[in-house]
Amino acid sequence: MLAAVVTGLAVFAPAADAQVGTGPWVSDSPGYSEQERGCGDISGLTFKLTCSTGSGDQRAERRYTTYTGGTHQFEGSFKITSMGGSRISLKQTFRDGSSAGPFFLLAVEKGGRLYAVHGGETIATGATVGTSVRVNTINQVGSTHKVYINGSQKDSVSSPSGSYYDKFGSYRTASGKGPITVEWSGIRFWHK
Q: Is the whole-model pTM more than 0.85?
């Protein structure tokens, strides 16, 4: 009898529950393209920069479909499996259209500090080799862009109106260099 009750509860559980933020959320499955440049290498959900070059375009990323307006949530977990370099961007929210360019870049320094590339403020610590870290971003276009690390809100900035897209992987910042290997998992998207 208990098994039947548990099964009945599972049937009524909402399928689009997001990890953070108030809903209701609708599950998304946006398309993406992969970007490998310089010494960037992608194999499934493993993203590598194989060189220690401190110049040029070094990236291994997924770029997702552009959205305009509304509220959009990204969720994914990363684990750095090796890191000989530092200052590598892992998750990005980009502007598209006439205002195209980087909006929010979450990067990691050797030692595990996660920081916002523009401004340099610390977002969290503890992103060390072998540690799994969950990242959620919620972009309410025309209002706020929020960043959550392991379910706790760590950053909030104003989000202008316009078009945006999400990227993740490994990308050498202007002051960074590889090598790094990052494994991503649990990639999910929602909107409302």
A: yes
